[in-house]
Amino acid sequence: MYNPLSWRNISTAKTLFVMTFMAGLGLIVSIVALLYLSLHLISSKTNEIDEHRTALSVEGAIQTSVNRVWSLVIDNAVWDDAVREVYRPELDTDWLYNTWGAGFKINNLYDGTFVLDEHFNVMWGSSFSKPFTEKDLSFFGAGLHAMIREHAEGLASENTIYAGITRTRSGIAFIGIGLIRPMVGRLQARDGVRRYLVITRHLNPQILTALGNTFQIENLTYTQDRISQSSVPLKSAGNERVGYLNWTPGQTGALAARAASGDFTRIVVLAAGLILLFILVSSIGLYKLARGESLARRVARTDWLSHLPNRRALIEELESVSQRGDSDVKSVVFLDLDGFKDVNDIYGHDVGDELIILIARELRDRVPQGGMLARMGGDEFAMTVGGDRSEALAAEFAGNVLTLLNTPIRLGERTLYMSASIGIATGTLTECTSSELFRRADIAMYHSKITGKGRVTLYDAALNSAREQRLSIENEIRAGLERNEFEVWYQPIIDAHSQKMTSVEALVRWPRRPAGELRPDAFISIAETSGLIYGLGQFVLRRACQDLGPFSDLKLSVNISPAQFRDPEFEEKVANVIEMTRFPSNRLQLEVTETYVLENPERARVAIASLKTQGIAMALDDFGTGYSSIGYLRQFNFDTIKIDKSLAGLVDNDEQAAALVSGTVRIANALGMTVVAEGVENEKQMKLLRLAGCDQLQGFWFSQPMPVEALRALRQVRQC
Ligand code: C2E
Ligand code: CA
Ligand code: CA
Fold it and tell me: How far is the CA of 672 from the centre of ligand 3 (A)?
C-alpha cells in the first residue's frame, strides 16, 4: 500500500548528512595536515638556516684560530730581543726555551715554536715543551711547505707573516710563519741570513670545546672524513683537504616545533571542535529541512479530506513505474459518485465531506493487495493495480464498490442512496503512457455515466471514437449557441374531445448546424453531460415564451432536462424568463422525466412546489418508460402525465398496453391529473387513446412539430 511518508526524503537527508560529515572530516584532516606540513616546513627551514649559520660560525672559528696564530707570530717574531738572540752565530737554547718553548705549559696558546734558518731548516724547536730535534720540515706537512713555496720571497723580504692550516705528524695544526725582525727599522743581518719563527697550535678536543663555547657551536669535533652534509672542510694552506669539523645541529626548528606543539594541538582541537559543531548544527538543519520537505511532500501528495493520496501522488506513482521501464500490466479504475452534487446541494458541504470520508474509508478496505487508491478531487476516485491479474482485480474492486453502494449509506440520521459510474482501462505503460491510461479509464467511466450510471464499463477503442464524436458535438453546440444556429419548433397538443389545439410542446431544432441538422436525441444528452444544457435550455424557454406570447389561447409545454433541474438557481432563472418575456406563468408547463425525480426526490419536491407557487404547471414526461408507478409519483403533485409514445403507440396492437394506459388514466384522473398521450400516429390509436380516457393527444396524426411561422399560418387558416 502507498505510504505517504516518503522514505526518499529521509534517505536524501541521510546522504546530505553523510556528505556534510565527510566534508567536515576532510576539512579537519586537511587543516591538521596543513598545520603539520607548515610546521614541518618552518622547522626544517629553520634548521637549514641554523645549520648554515653554524657552518659560517665554524668557518669563523677556523679563521679566528688561524688569525690567533698569525698574531702570535707577529707578537713574537717582530721583536727586537728576539732579533738579538736568534741572529747570533750560536743560538741560546735556554733563552729560546724559556721564551718560547715553555709557553705551551703556561698559556696553552700554542704548542710548538720553531726557529728556521734561511734555508728553512729547523735550527731549534720545541714541540709540546719538548725539544724538537729534526732538521727538515717533514714534520710540518704540506701546509707549511706550500706556504714557504708560495711566499718564500715575501717571507724573506720581511714584510709579511703567513698563517694557515697544515697536517703535522702530530695532527692538524694552525701554523704561522714569519721573519724574526726588529720592530722598527730594517733587519741588520749578514747577507742572506734569515731566521724565521714558526708557531703551531694543534687541534685538540679542548681547543674545539673552547671554540665551540666562543662561537656557540655544540659538540664541535674533528674527523678525517666527512660525516654529515653540513661538515665544514678544513683546508690546508696548500689547499689540501685535511679533514672536517663537525657539530651537532641545534635543530632549532624542531625545538620550536616541539615548543609550539602544545599550542598547535590546542589549535587543532579547537578547529576540529568548531568543525564538528558546524557539522552538528548543519545536520540538525538538514534533518529539520528534510522533515519539513517530507511533510510538505506528504501534504502536497495527500488529499486533505479523505487522507488518501491525491491525483498528483497517483500520477507520480504511475510515472515512476513507467520511468522504470516496467513492462508490467497496469489497470486504472476510475470512479465517479453519482448524485454527489445533489447531496452537497441539499444537505450542505459538511454532509458531503462526511460522505466522502466515509466512502473513502470503505473504498480503502476494498483495494486489492499492491493497489493504490487516490481521491482525484470532488467525487472522483481512482485505483491502480499492476500485474498479470490486474484487470481481474480491478473488475473485482469495481464490483465490490457497486455492491457496497447498493446498500443505502447511513450518515447520522440520514439515509443516502448513492451509486457510482466506474470505468476501467488496462494496458502496459510501454504501450500507452500513464496519463493515457487515466484518460481511457475516464472515458469508460463517462460511458457508464451517460448510459445509466451505477455501472462498470471496460475501455475499448470504440468508446474513444464515441467520446471524440461527443466532444466534437459538444464544441459544435457551444459554437452553435453563439452563432444562433438553434430554432424552436412547436408540436400541437389536441384536446381529445373537442379535437382542438389547446397547447404546444416546444422542441429544439438545429437547422443551421454546419455539418448538417441533428435531431435532439443525438445532442440533448451531450448538452446535458457537458453543462451546455443550461444555456440551451434557457434559450428554448425564452424563445418559446417569446414565440407563444401572442397565442393567448395556447398553453406552452417546455422540456426541462434533469441537469437543468439540478441547478439550484433553476426556479429563479425560470422566473426571470417569465418576467422578461411577460409570458403568463399559468400558460406555462414544464416537462420533466422521472429520472431526476427518482434520483433526488427531496430536491424535486421542493423545486416542483416552488415552481407551482409561481403558477407554472408541471408535467411528468415519458411516463411508462421508467419503472416507477403512478402511485409513487403522486407525491410530487404533477399536473399532467404524458404517456410515452412507446406505450401509447402500442395501444392498437397490444391489449396489455391498452389496459395499462386506461389504468394509468383512471388513477391520474382520480388524482386530478391531466393525461396526455404522445406519439399518436394513426386514427385507430387516436380513437383507442380517447376511449381510454386520455385528455389530450399529441402526435404525427395531428401534426408534425413546426416552426412558429407555420403555427401562425395554421392558426390563421383555422380562424378563416
Ligand atoms: P419528447 O419530450 O418525448 O418529445 C416528443 C418527441 O416525439 C419529439 O421528438 C417529437 O418530434 C416526437 N414525436 C411527436 N409525435 C410523434 C409521433 O407521432 N411519432 C413519433 N415516433 N414521434 C413523435 P424530438 O423533437 O426529436 O425530440 C426528442 C426528444 O428530445 C424529446 O422527447 C425530448 O426528450 C428531447 N427534447 C427536444 N427538445 C428539447 C428541449 O428543448 N429541451 C430538452 N431538455 N429536451 C428536448
Ligand atoms: Ca416532452
Ligand atoms: Ca415524451
Answer: 20
In this prediction, residue 720 carries a pLDDT of 47
Q: Is the pLDDT of residue 194 over 60?
A: yes
Asked if residues 457 and 422 have their Cβ atoms less than 8 Å apart, the reply is yes
**pLDDT at position 405:** 92
Here the cell at position 334 is: 476510475
In a domain, 225, yes or no: yes
Closest CA to 1 of 320, 331, 369, 333: 369
Q: Which residues have C-beta within 8 Å of that of residue 191, sequence separation ≥ 6?
A: none
Backbone angles phi, psi at 424, to 5 degrees: -130, 135
**Position 430 in a domain:** yes
Residues 541 and 568 in one domain: yes
Of the CA atoms within 13 Å of residue 548, those in its CB half-sphere come to: 32
Alpha-helix residue ranges (DSSP H) falling in 236-251: none
Task: Give residue 519 CA to ligand 3 midpoint distance, Å.
Answer: 14
Report the CATH number that the domain containing residue 358 is assigned in CATH: 3.30.70.270
Q: State the pLDDT at residue 345.
A: 81
528 in contact with ligand 1, CB cutoff 6 A: no
Considering 61-70, 345-354, 479-488, 663-672, the range whose residues carry the highest mean pLDDT is 479-488
Q: Amino acid identity, residue 103?
A: G
Q: Which amino acid is at 189?
A: A
The protein residue whose alpha carbon is closest to atom 27 in ligand 1 is 520
Number of domains in the chain: 4
Helices and strands counted in the chain (H then E): 24, 25
User: Do residues 533 and 653 both lie within one domain?
Assistant: yes
Residue 515 in domain: yes
The DSSP secondary structure of 120-179, one letter per residue, reads: --EEEEEETTEE----SSGGGHHHHHHHHHHHHHHHHTS--EEEEEEEETTEEEEEEEEE
Contact present, 394 and 388 (Cβ < 8 Å): no
User: pTM of this prediction?
Assistant: 0.56
Q: Which ligand number lies closest to the CA of residue 619?
A: 2
Going by alpha carbons, the residue nearest to atom 25 of ligand 1 is: 507
**Cβ distance 564 to 537 under 8 Å?**
yes
- Ligand 1 pocket residue status of 522, Cβ below 6 Å: no
Say whether both 655 and 565 belong to one domain: yes
Task: Give residue 4's pLDDT band: very low, low, confident or very high (50, 70, 90).
Answer: very low
Q: At what angle do helices 311-323 and 434-450 cross, to 10 degrees?
A: 130
What residues contact residue 484 under an 8 Å CB cut-off, 6+ apart? Answer: 512
Half-sphere exposure of 509 (CA within 13 A, CB side): 15
Are 236 and 141 spatial neighbours (Cβ–Cβ below 8 Å)? yes
What is the CA(451)–ligand 3 centre distance, in A? 19
d(CA 13, CA 18): 9
**Does the Cβ of 508 fall within 6 Å of ligand 1?**
yes
Query: What gap in Å lies between CA 65 and CA 51, rounded to an integer?
Result: 21
Residue 420 domain flag: yes
Q: For residue range 259-318, list pLDDT tens digits in order.
A: 877 887 888 888 888 888 888 888 888 788 878 888 888 888 999 999 999 988 988 887
* Statement: residue 320 has pLDDT above 80: no
Domain span at residue 76 reads 60-246
Residue 160: all three cell numbers together: 709579511
Single-letter residue type at 534: Y
Rg of the chain over CA atoms, in angstroms? 64
Q: Relative to the CA of 593, which ligand 1 atom is closest?
A: 34
Q: Are strands 419-428 and 329-338 parallel, antiparallel or unpaired?
A: antiparallel
Return the pLDDT at 3.
44
Q: Ligand 1 pocket check: which of 519, 678, 681, 696 to mutate, most ligand atoms within 8 Å of Cβ?
A: 678
Question: 717: alpha, beta or left, given left = phi > 0 and alpha = psi -120 to 50?
Answer: alpha
Three cell numbers, residue 336: 465517479
Instruction: Provide φ and ψ at 138, rounded to 5°.
Output: -60, -30
Q: Is the dihedral of CA 296, 302, 303, 307 positive or negative?
A: negative
Rounded mean pLDDT, 59-66: 90
